[in-house]
Amino acid sequence: MKARNKRKQAGFTLIEMMVVVAVIGLLIAMVGPRVFNQVEKAERTRIAQDIRVVENALKFYRLDNFRYPTQAQGIEALVSPPSGSDNWNGPYLDAVPKDPFDNAYMYANPGTRGKDIDVFTYGADEASGGEGSNKDWGNWNVQ
């Protein structure tokens, strides 16, 4: 009789397992959105820092060359000397940074949003507009 009782209480019942799985599911449902919100916040922070770094490098380029790189020269002019720039004193950046979605930052000269130049990314979707990770970020709206 003792052996039979020990065998019955040796494992978990199906109901106990279902309760544990349900509790784990509830915890994930509560914590999940907060974790994803932190990912978007980290993306925004990195984009803001990258844009500031590129903008500062462009200012140093302008001090040496008396103008910003042309649209055709782009941000690459900060890494290697473009043709015809006798005053180039770079490199102003070690490498052209990429946004958190592995896309190159874009550059517009002249700027179209109230600044001399625009440094921006279209986000994960690589298309103008969007929300969340697809939002456009540039030197006009980063803090």
Write a structural description:
With about 140 residues, the chain is mainly α. About 40% of the residues lie in helices and about 5% in strands. It has two helices and three strands. A three-stranded antiparallel sheet has the order 1-2-3, covered by helices on one side. About 15% of the residues are buried.
Per DSSP E runs of 2 or more residues, the count of β-strands stands at: 3
Helix run count: 2
Tell me the distance between the termini: 74 Å
- Amount of beta strand: 5-15%
Radius of gyration: 27 Å
Strand order of the largest sheet: 1-2-3
Class from secondary-structure proportions: mainly alpha
Mean pLDDT: 84
Order of helices and strands: HHEEE
Write the layout of secondary structure elements.
Layout: H1 2-8, H2 14-65, E1 106-108, E2 118-121, E3 137-138
Antiparallel strand pairs: 1-2, 2-3
Condensed summary:
The protein contains 2 helices and 3 strands. By secondary structure, it is mainly alpha-helical.
Could you name the key traits of this structure?
143 residues, mainly alpha, 3-stranded antiparallel sheet, 3 strands, 41% helix, 6% strand, elongated
